[in-house]
Structures are given as structure tokens and as C-alpha cells.
């Protein structure tokens, strides 16, 4: 059963965020969000705040731990690490997935690292050779005669589990066995994304970089689209009209949702809105700049129907997208429905609290996962996926990380991510400037940033 089936999509627009917190929350949390549009600077570098996140956020929240294509066969495993906690995500013989704490119950040895496959569906400790089935049940204790019966009681030495569920082509974990279900926690963001067909997407590539920026500050750069004109000028192809204010071109609606999730997508333009962007030029720049959201196959189809048409007109845009959907049909690619609700999110994004973002477009999506790195609030591990929908039944093989690349590596990162990465480290340096006590958020354009922080404070206060 999918999340969309469990929680009706009709309730999405009513699942608006709770709003600013009261004193029952703000009085408990250091550097709390006491004003909804001011974020205290210390939240991005304070060791005290970071330790609270380590203790009360990451062990209690659902996290995207792996793509399902990383685990195509029984016995396949990947390691997921968060603030010093290592979890093994393991494909079971029945093709279900389990999450096991990565520590031997004998002398605490780490059982595996990275990714691989457990031969014979057995996890073997490299120190003394104790063995467990891939479901965590003990199968062999080497030197059994040297232990008391109590010491090697299976209840004591079976590997400990974390909650583990799948949704949208992802594996999600929660270290808290008492936490609410994934299906409840992802509402309403998952409903919206299922409408976009993300559950049918597979990874085209997966890369990462280590960035000198707090994980929250890094992801907030993608909660809004109005940085495009300055940060990505090559993507700004709107026709200028005399007398139009810049704000009128920000044709975007921002919605903060329950559970800390947020969305931005196309909004309603004024009748005097200053034209549309050049659709074909934008598609070319998007593909060449990051090879995600818009792919080479999409651009090829858009070019094939351009002819003598003005590629900034709505007529051309609809003809190009219609041709793309005809291609999907002929190629056996299950595309999302061609509806206004779906199209509005193309070029926007969904943030799934606490640290995962999806930016769907056509039958593709860009995805980001940003998490703390090396036990330092000033650094993050920034992972990027290009996702797309392939013809049904096509075997893509096992997904592995392409590599970890420097943020300035123009051989492995397109222009768009390099432009974004440059901003992130500038923000982390600036956030510590003694003249700055807080960042200032726009009430309209940055409301989902505020919502994420409000939810974070609620999570922390609940444990204090």
C-alpha cells in the first residue's frame, strides 16, 4: 500500500504547518526561534546546539538511508552513518529490508563498512568469527563453551534493529523503535511526490562533496527559487518588460506543511507578468549545467519540434512537452499524469524533514541529502542524485556512489551545483561575523525555512 492510498491527496492543502512555537517550546531550547522570521546565527555553528541535534533529533527522526537500487539482491548491504551511529541496511531473502546496528554484541567490533554483499546471507564478525543471519538473529558463537548461558542468550546477542521502511524508491530508517510510522511522518510531502511518480524513478548517477557549511544552512539554499537570477544568471531567460518589478517575476508559491516539510512550486502570475522564459534555452542550460531534472533525451525531443516557433511562447512549451509525453508512451516509460497539479511542481521542490529534498521535473528528479560530517557543526556531507524513469523492466544494475569530488571539480560537477556550492561556504563564514546575530527571512519567499526550524525546535523541546 502506498502513502497516497493510505492518506488521501485531497487533504494535502489543509496540512499546513502549525506556525510559530510558544514559550513551552522556546523556553527549553537554546538559540530558539523566538521570532518566526529571524534565525539565531548560533544554530548553525554552536557545539551546544549541535549536541542537542545529535541526542534528540537524529536518533528520533525518519531519515532517507539508501536508494533501493543499492540493494538489488538478497544479502546486499549498505552502511548508513549519522552523527557517529552506523547502521547496516540489508536486503533479506524475501526481498524485504532490515536496518541493523553495526556493532558486534561480543566486543563491539564494526561488522561491515561501505557496501557489499554478505555471502550465504551470513554476517560474520571479522574479530572472532561470530555469525548472524542477515535478519540479525545469531547463528553461531565461536567459543560458545567459554560463555555463560545468560551471556549468549539470543535475546542478548541478536543484533539490534532500527525501524526500517521503504517508500518512493528509498529505504528509510528511524533509530527510535517507538517513533510514529514513516507513513505518518512523511505526510503530506510523500503524497505530493507520489503524484509526480518518484516511486518509479531510478538513479542515473550519485555523487557527493564535503562542504564547509552546516547541514541546515546548506539545505536552506534550495528551499527557495528566487536566488536563481543572481546565483544562476544563465538560467534567467525571462523577457524584460519596462516598469515590471523584480518581485512580479517570482511567480512561485511557497507552502509550509506539517511535520516540518515544505514546498515551492509555480504560482499564479499577474495579467501584466513580464513574459515567459525561453523554454528551449532554459532546458539546454539545465541539462548542460547539471544533467538532472532536464536530461539530454528531453532536450533532443524539445529541439525536434522547435522549427520556426518562438521558443518563449506557451504554444511552443505545450508542443514540446506534448512531444516528450509521446516519447514516453512509445518508449514504455511510465510518466506522471500530464495535469496542472503535476506541472506546477516542475522546477520547484519538496523538502522532507529533516534533510532530504526532491526537485521533480517531467519523469526526472534531482535529489539532495545533506547530513553532518566528521562530528563538526561547520561541515556537511552533501550528496546529489540525478533520478529518472526508465522503460518498465529495464535492469540498471546495482547503484553505487560515483565518487566524492571537490566542490570546485568542473570535471564532475556541472556549473549549476558549483555555483550553489560556492554560496554555501560563503554563508558559513558569514554566519560567524560578529555583526550578525541572526539571519532575516522573507515572510513570503523563505517561509519554509522558518517552518523547518520551528519543527526542529519542537523535536528538541519534546526531549528536554
From TrEMBL:
Cofactors demanded by this protein: Fe cation
Every Rieske domain range: 62-173
Signal sequence, start to end: none
Short name of one Pfam family: Rieske
InterPro entries: Rieske_2Fe-2S, Rieske_2Fe-2S_sf, Ring_hydroxy_dOase_asu_C_dom, Rng_hydr_dOase-A
Keywords: 2Fe-2S, Dioxygenase, Iron, Iron-sulfur, Metal-binding, Oxidoreductase
Cited SUPFAM superfamilies: Bet v1-like (SSF55961), ISP domain (SSF50022)
Any one GO molecular function term: monooxygenase activity
EC number(s) from the headed UniProt entry: 1.14.12.19
PANTHER family: CHOLINE MONOOXYGENASE, CHLOROPLASTIC
Protein name as it appears in the record: 3-phenylpropionate/cinnamic acid dioxygenase subunit alpha
Species, as recorded: Microbacterium terrae
Amino acid at each position: 500500500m502506498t502513502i497516497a492510498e493510505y492518506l488521501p491527496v485531497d487533504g494535502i492543502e489543509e496540512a499546513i504547518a502549525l506556525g510559530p512555537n510558544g514559550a513551552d517550546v522556546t523556553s527549553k531550547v537554546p538559540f530558539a526561534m523566538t521570532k518566526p522570521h529571524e534565525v539565531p546565527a548560533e544554530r548553525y555553528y554552536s557545539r551546544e546546539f549541535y549536541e542537542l541535534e545529535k541526542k534528540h533529533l537524529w536518533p528520533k527522526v525518519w531519515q532517507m538511508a539508501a536508494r533501493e537500487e543499492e540493494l538489488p539482491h538478497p544479502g546486499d548491504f549498505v552502511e548508513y552513518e549519522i552523527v557517529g551511529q552506523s547502521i547496516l541496511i540489508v536486503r533479506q531473502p524475501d526481498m524485504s529490508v532490515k536496518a541493523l546496528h553495526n556493532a558486534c554484541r561480543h566486543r563491539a567490533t564494526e561488522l561491515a563498512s561501505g557496501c557489499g554483499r554478505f555471502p550465504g546471507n551470513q554476517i560474520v564478525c571479522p574479530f572472532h568469527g561470530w555469525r548472524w543471519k542477515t535478519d540479525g538473529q545469531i547463528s553461531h558463537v565461536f567459543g560458545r563453551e567459554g560463555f555463560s548461558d545468560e551471556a549468549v542468550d539470543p535475546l542478548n546477542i541478536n543484533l539490534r534493529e532500527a525501524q526500517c521502511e521503504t517508500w518512493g524508491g528509498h529505504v528509510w530508517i528511524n533509530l527510535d523503535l517507538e517513533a510514529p510510522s514513516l507513513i505518518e511522518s512523511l505526510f503530506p510531502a510523500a503524497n505530493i511526490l507520489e503524484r509526480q511518480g518518484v516511486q518509479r524513478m531510478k538513479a542515473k548517477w550519485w555523487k557527493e562533496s564535503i562542504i564547509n557549511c552546516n547541514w541546515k544552512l546548506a539545505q536552506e539554499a534550495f528551499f527557495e527559487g528566487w536566488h536563481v537570477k543572481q546565483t544562476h544568471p544563465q538560467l534567467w531567460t525571462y523577457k524584460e518588460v519596462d516598469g515590471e518589478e523584480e518581485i512580479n517575476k517570482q511567480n512561485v508559491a511557497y507552502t509550509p506543511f506539517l511535520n516540518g516539510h515544505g514546498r515551492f512550486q509555480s504560482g499564479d502570475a499577474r495579467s501584466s507578468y513580464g513574459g515567459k522564459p525561453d523554454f528551449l534555452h532554459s532546458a539546454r542550460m539545465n541539462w548542460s549545467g547539471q544533467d538532472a531534472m532536464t536530461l539530454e533525451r528531453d532536450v533532443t525531443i524539445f529541439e525536434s519540434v522547435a522549427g520556426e516557433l518562438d521558443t518563449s511562447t506557451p504554444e511552443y512549451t505545450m508542443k514540446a512537452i506534448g512531444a516528450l509525453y509521446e516519447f514516453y508512451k512509445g518508449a514504455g516509460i511510465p510518466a506522471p499524469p500530464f495535469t496542472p497539479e503535476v506541472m506546477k511542481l516542475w522546477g520547484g521542490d519538496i523538502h522532507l524533514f529533516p534533510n532530504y529534498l526532491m526537485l521533480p521535473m517531467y519523469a526526472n528528479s534531482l535529489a539532495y541529502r545533506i547530513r553532518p560530517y566528521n562530528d563538526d557543526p561547520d561541515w556537511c556531507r552533501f550528496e546529489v542524485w540525478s533520478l529518472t524513469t526508465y522503460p518498465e523492466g529495464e535492469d540498471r544494475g546495482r547503484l553505487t556512489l560515483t565518487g566524492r569530488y571537490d566542490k570546485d571539480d568542473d570535471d564532475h560537477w556541472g556549473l549549476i551545483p558549483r555555483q550553489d556550492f560556492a554560496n554555501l561556504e560563503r554563508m558559513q563564514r558569514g554566519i560567524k561575523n560578529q555583526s550578525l546575530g541572526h539571519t532575516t527571512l522573507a515572510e513570503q519567499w523563505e517561509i519554509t525555512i522558518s517552518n523547518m526550524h520551528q519543527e526542529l525546535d519542537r523535536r528538541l523541546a519534546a526531549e528536554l
